[in-house]
Amino acid sequence: MLIVVLLAMASSVVLASDPSPLQYFCVADKASPELIILTGYFMFPLLVNGFVCKNPMDVNAEDFFFSGLNMPGNTNKRLGSNVTAVDVKKTAGLNTLGISLARIDFAPYGLNPPHTHPRATVVLTVIEGSLLVGFVTSNPQNRLIFKVLNAGDVFVFPEGLIHFQFNRGHKNAVAIAGLSSQKPGVITVTNAVFESNPKIDESVLAKAFQVDKKVIDYISPEPVMDGQ
């Protein structure tokens, strides 16, 4: 009986992991009509990670190319930062490869606010300037792991953990982030807590933060739309 249970557990682990692609690439083809597979009485679009694969014979270098990451992003925003994402929407060849990229620009004292990527670990490389970066571990410790980075330094943010980057200097800063997902997702903490749709009841937030409802009204920010 024990052997049967262990085999069942092993099978569930195998089934729970993401399968590796059985082809070198599946370039996302948004222009072509969806391929259709027929199953019983139902018809379903044949998609791989949400996209139809482009005919391999029609694939070319442009499908794997992106230009413009050398251009500074607009940091004239409330938080003083800008994220330029290079994902499958901009580089169709990234589909099924499990990676994406982003350039993050910071004005002096600019902030990429606390956020999390539910599907990706991030490797951040500072190209210019200096950044205070950090992430917070999960309950119950909630430890802040942080460090000041300078040009050429690299820091890793584990998948799913809340993290941030802050430019404490008087000059602009630039960083390049590599992410272990073609669609990492982003959840900005302030948006999720204060700007949900519909909004979380103020009584819930007041109880959670152990403050008066008036304080919740006072600190509730405008939505922050930056991020990947």
From TrEMBL:
CDD domains: cupin_OxOx
Taxonomy, superkingdom: Eukaryota
Keywords noted in UniProt: Apoplast, Disulfide bond, Manganese, Metal-binding, Secreted, Signal
Disulfide bonds: C26-C53
GO molecular function terms attached to this record: manganese ion binding
Cupin type-1 domain boundaries: 67-217
Location within or outside the cell: Secreted, Extracellular space, Apoplast
Residues the record lists as binding oxalate: N112, H117
Keyword hit for Chloroplast: no
Residues engaged in binding Mn(2+): H115, H117, H163
Main location: secreted
Signal peptide range: 1-16
GO cellular component assignments: apoplast
Cited SUPFAM superfamilies: RmlC-like cupins
Pfam families attached to this UniProt entry: Cupin_1
Family listed: Belongs to the germin family.
Protein name stated in the entry: Germin-like protein
Species of the source: Acorus calamus
